[in-house]
Specification:
Layout (H helix, E strand, L loop, with lengths): L2 H13 L16 H14 L4 H8 L5 H7 L9 H7 L2 H14 L1 H11 L3 H12 L8 E2 H10 L4 H17 L7 E2 L12 H7 L14 H14 L15 H7 L3 H15 L1
Antiparallel strand pairs: 1-2
Helix pairs in contact: 1-10, 3-10, 6-8, 6-14, 8-14, 9-10, 10-11, 11-12, 13-14
InterPro entries: Lysozyme-like_dom_sf (IPR023346), MltB-like (IPR043426), SLT_2 (IPR031304)
Keywords: Lyase, Signal
Protein name: Membrane-bound lytic murein transglycosylase B
Amino acid sequence: MRPRFVLRLAAALSAAALPAFAAPCSNDGGQYEQWKPQFAQEARAAGIGERGIQALMNSSYSQGTINADRNQKSFNYSLDKFMQVRGANTIVSQGRQRKAANAGFYQSLEQNYGVPAGVLLAIHGMETGFGGFMGDSPVVSSILTLAYDCRRSGFFTPHALAALQLVDRGALSANSIGARHGEWGHTQFLPGNVVRYGVDGNGDGRVDLTNETDALASTANFLRQKGWQPGAGYQQGQPNYRVIQEWNAAGVYQQAIAIMASQIDG
């Protein structure tokens, strides 16, 4: 990721907080078309160029995103049920196979970032079934819908601006597909996190989280930047469990990752 790009987007995210340009949110999709030009003013003030603005204006309200946001039932399951529903045994089995088949790659990630293979594989398996399903929703429309929606507009607006900046710079396509909340790639990064923590793992000069190498290096970098301590434990009560909590706020998800990771690593 080029430093100038990171600095420009950091300025854009800061500018997003300026109240003079804040577009009003709504819990009803009926005003989305009227909201887009208002948000475009906010985006321009944040430094977004015309390619990003065009992606905004071509976006559409995603009712599927709103439905998914209101219906995250699995996070209320017991740990046992959550792991059963999410296929924990399969993730562990496949995680062990993938680690054995590409041991050098995972060793290099641990050497560079301090994060063991089990944690990365547990996240990869949990998020997309190791890349088997990375979503079916347009990233730009999904994240803009969440910025428009009042429920968590403050959280998603910076990510919406980041998505437009990524489109503007050619890192994302206006038609890129991801998950219902605008997450992208093998391990489901929100756009703002792509900018902050994205790594060009395969050395081709771009950060593409639909590339497995880039995605896993970026995930390891995210965890390291959030305070991962190489060699320290990651179960509940141990130093690195707090970092797993940075990845996902749901307690049952955090517990599942820690358990599966330890089983993958043996």
